[in-house]
């Protein structure tokens, strides 16, 4: 079981709440990412860019709508 870690230094505070607080809108996605060996993520421009096997699948932002790049089981959770 992998534990995905990301540098949240430049992450939007709204996004932090949505991802990391149990009542957050994206918390279930964060939980699913923790056990998925194929998923990586990086913070860019205060947003979370999520990759599966090196290919971008999803961008989560604090106030803006999520941006689905390609079909993926994480995207289905939105």
Features:
2 helices, globular, 4 strands, four-stranded antiparallel beta sheet, 78 residues, alpha+beta, single chain
Explain the overall architecture:
By secondary structure, this protein is α+β, with helices and mostly antiparallel strands. 21% of the residues lie in helices and 26% in strands. It contains two helices and four strands; from the N terminus they run ααββββ. It has a four-stranded antiparallel β-sheet with strand order 1-2-3-4, with no helix packed on it. The mean pLDDT is 93.
Summarize it.
By secondary structure, the protein is of the alpha+beta class. 21% of the residues lie in helices and 26% in strands. The protein has helices at residues 13-20, 27-34, and strands at 39-44, 47-52, 55-60, 67-68.
Mean pLDDT: 93
The oligomeric state of the chains shown is: single chain
Beta-strand portion reads 25-35%
Radius of gyration: 11 Å
Biggest sheet: strand arrangement: 1-2-3-4
Shape descriptor reads globular
Series of secondary-structure elements, N-terminal to C-terminal = HHEEEE
Largest sheet: 4 strands, antiparallel
What's the β-strand tally? 4
Q: How far from one another are the termini?
A: 23 Å
Give me the secondary-structure category: alpha+beta
Number of helices: 2
Helix fraction, binned, reads 10-25%
